[in-house]
Design brief:
Layout lengths: L8 H9 L5 H19 L2 E4 L1 H16 L11 E5 L26 H8 L3 E6 L33 H8 L5 E6 L5 H7 L2 E4 L19 E6 L2 H11 L17 H9 L7 E5 L9 H16 L3 E5 L7 H16 L20 H12 L2 H14 L5 H24 L2 E5 L15 H5 L6 H6 L3 E9 L2 E8 L5 H15 L8
The structure holds glutamine (GLN).
C-alpha cells in the first residue's frame, strides 16, 4: 500500500482492523521512513526495530484470530525518552543515564502496549526536559522538518519533529511549562497537555513533580484525542492521579470538527494580546479568532492580571523541585559513575559523576533551585513564587466563570534558528510565556496549527478548566476545521 506514512492514526487503525494492510507493513513503512530521513531530522535517540516488528506481529495475530481491538491497535508511536520503557534505553536526553535500560514500564507505556500501539522508539529531548529547542540534549539537537536550520521546539522536539517528518503518526510528550505545546506550535502539529493528574506520572523521570504532565501529540486533533483516551485515567501508582472519569475527548473532537461552536464562549487573554509576540504570529492568531466567531462562538476579552508573573514564578518553582528530584542521580544506584577508583570518597565520586553527567542548563537549574530553597531565602523566593501560583489559579477560576475556554497564541515566535537563543537563557525561557500559566494552575491546554508566518507554522492555544479537557478538544477541532492542517515542504 502506498501513502501509509501520510495517513492519520485513525485511518491506519481502521485499515489494520479491516485487514486492508497489516500492522507489520505499517511498522515497516515507518521504520523505512526513519531510516531515510532521521539522519537529517534526528528525532530519535533510539529506534527499536525488533520490538516494533514483534509488537506489530502480535497485533496482526490477534486480528487474524478475530479479536476486536481498540481504534489505535497496530498504529506506530514514538515515545519521549523521559518515560521508562522496560529493556529499552531511557536517557532523558542526559549523559548521566546513558546506557540505562529500565527494569519496568511507565504506566503510560503499559497502556500504549495494552492498546496495541507499536512503539517505534524513543525521541530526543532537552536534558531532563529543561529547554525550548532540544539544543540542550546531550546527544545533539533535533532539526525542524520545516527548515532544518531551525529548532523543532522543546523540550519534546523529537516527538514533534517525528510527526512533521512523517516518521510516526502519533507521539507522546511531557509538558512541565510548555514542552508539548510549543514544539507542536513550531512544527505545525497538534499537542495536548491534559489536566494535571489526568495522566499518570508513574515511570516518568521527574523534572518538576507538581507540574509534569504527559500527553498526546499527533498531526490531527482527532488523532490526539484518540491517543489521549488511551493514556488518560486514574493510576493508583501515582498519588497525584485524579480518580475521576476521563472526559469524552474523542466525542468532543468529533463535535468540534462539525464546525459548530454555537453557544461556546471564548475568552481572549487581554495580557497576552499586546506585546511580546511577533506580528506574523499575532495576525495568524487574530484571523483564527475571527474564524471562530464565524463558527458561532462568542468572543470576549478577559483580564488575567497575574499571568505576566507566571514566567518568573515558574523559574523558581520548577528549578526548586528539580534540585530535589535530580538529587537521585548520584552515581550510586544507576547510570553513569565517574572516578570510582577505590581511592576516592563517596562525596568525591558523586560530585565527579554529577559534574560529568549533567549539562550546563541542568546545572544552572539545580543551582537556582538549591539557592531558592535554602534557609533564609526560602520565603523570599520559593514562598513568594507559590503565592503567585495561587493568584494565577484565582485568575483562571475567575475567567472560567465568564467563559468556557481561554485562547492565546501558543508561543510568541515561530521556529527560531539553531544557536540563536542558547547564549541567553532568558530569551529561551520566553518561548513559554503563554504556556506556563496553565501548568501553574493545573488545567488542560492544547496547541493546534492556525496558519503560517513567513512560511513557518503558528500555533493556537486553547486553555480549559481543570477536567474540562473535552472543551479544549472541541474548540481545537473547530479551529482545524476552519483553517485545515499544514504539511511541511518535502524532506
Ligand atoms: N521550556 C520550559 C523549561 O525549560 C518547559 C519545559 C517543559 O515543559 N518540560 O522549563
Amino acid at each position: 500500500m502506498t501513502g501509509v506514512i501520510k495517513k492519520t492514526a485513525a485511518e491506519l487503525g481502521a485499515l489494520i482492523a479491516n485487514r486492508e494492510v497489516s500492522a507489520v507493513e505499517v511498522a515497516r513503512e515507518h521504520l523505512d521512513r526513519i531510516a531515510a530521513v532521521d539522519d537529517r531530522v534526528h528525532a530519535f535517540l533510539h529506534v527499536d526495530t525488533e520490538g516494533a516488528l514483534a509488537a506489530a506481529e502480535a497485533v496482526d495475530a490477534r486480528i487474524a484470530a478475530g479479536e476486536q481491538l481498540g481504534p489505535l491497535a497496530g498504529v506506530p508511536i514514538a515515545v519521549k525518552d523521559v518515560l521508562a520503557t522496560r529493556g529499552v534505553p531511557t536517557t532523558a536526553g542526559s549523559k548521566i543515564l546513558e546506557g540505562w535500560r529500565p527494569p519496568y514500564d511507565a504506566t503510560l507505556v503499559e497502556r500504549l502496549r495494552a492498546a496495541g500501539t507499536v512503539m517505534l522508539g524513543k525521541t530526543n529531548m532537552d536534558e531532563f526536559a529543561m529547554g525550548s529547542s532540544t539544543e540542550y540534549s546531550a546527544y545533539g539537537p533535533t532539526f525542524n522538518p520545516w527548515d532544518l536550520a531551525r529548532i523543532p521546539g522543546g523540550s519534546g522536539g523529537g516527538s514533534a519533529a517525528a510527526l512533521a517528518a512523517y516518521e510516526a503518526p502519533l507521539s507522546i510528550g511531557t509538558d512541565t511549562g510548555g514542552s508539548i505545546r510549543q514544539p507542536g506550535a513550531v512544527t505545525g502539529t497538534v499537542g495536548a497537555k491534559p489536566t494535571y493528574g489526568g495522566t499518570s506520572r508513574y515511570g516518568l523521570l521527574a523534572f518538576s513533580s507538581s507540574l509534569d504532565t504527559p500527553g498526546p501529540c499527533a498531526r490531527t486533533v482527532e488523532d490526539t484525542a484518540l491517543l489521549h483516551a488511551v493514556i488518560a485515567g486514574h493510576d493508583q501508582r501515582d498519588s497525584t492521579s485524579i480518580d475521576a472519569p476521563v472526559p469524552d475527548v474523542v466525542g468532543a473532537a468529533r463535535l468540534g470538527a462539525t464546525g459548530d461552536l454555537a453557544g461556546v464562549k471564548v475568552g481572549l487573554v487581554r495580557e497576552f494580546s499586546g506585546e511580546g509576540a511577533e506580528p506574523g504570529v499575532m495576525s495568524a492568531f487574530r484571523e483564527t479568532v475571527e474564524a471562530l466567531t464565524k463558527l458561532g462562538a462568542e468572543v470576549v476579552e478577559v483580564s488575567c492580571p497575574h499571568f505576566l508573573y507566571a514566567l518568573p514564578a515558574y523559574y523558581l518553582i520548577a528549578p526548586s523541585e528539580c534540585s530535589s528530584n535530580l538529587a537521585r542521580y548520584d552515581g550510586v544506584r544507576f547510570g553513569l559513575r565517574v572516578g570510582d577508583d577505590g581511592n576516592r570518597s563517596l562525596e568525591e565520586v558523586m560530585s565527579a559523576t554529577r559534574e560529568a553527567g549533567f549539562g550546563p542548563e541542568v546545572k544552572r537549574r539545580i543551582i537556582i533551585g538549591t539557592y531558592a530553597l535554602s534557609s533564609g531565602y526560602y520565603d523570599a523566593y520559593y514562598g513568594q513564587a507559590q503565592k503567585v501560583r495561587t493568584l494565577i489559579t484565582r485568575d483562571f477560576t475567575a475567567a472560567f466563570e465568564q467563559v468556557d475556554v481561554l485562547v492565546s497564541p501558543t508561543t510568541p515566535f515561530v521556529a527560531f534558528e539553531l544557536g540563536s537563543r542558547t547564549s541567553d537563557p532568558y530569551q529561551m525561557y520566553l518561548a513559554d510565556l503563554f504556556t506556563i500559566p496553565t501548568n501553574l494552575y493545573g488545567g488542560p491546554a492544547i496547541s493546534v496549527p492556525c496558519g503560517l508566518s513567513e512560511g513557518l507554522p503558528v500555533g493556537f492555544q486553547v486553555m480549559a478548566p481543570i477536567l474540562g479537557d473535552d472543551r479544549m478538544y472541541r474548540v481545537a477541532a473547530a479551529v482545524e476545521s476552519a483553517v485545515g492542517t499544514f504539511a511541511p515542504p518535502a524532506l
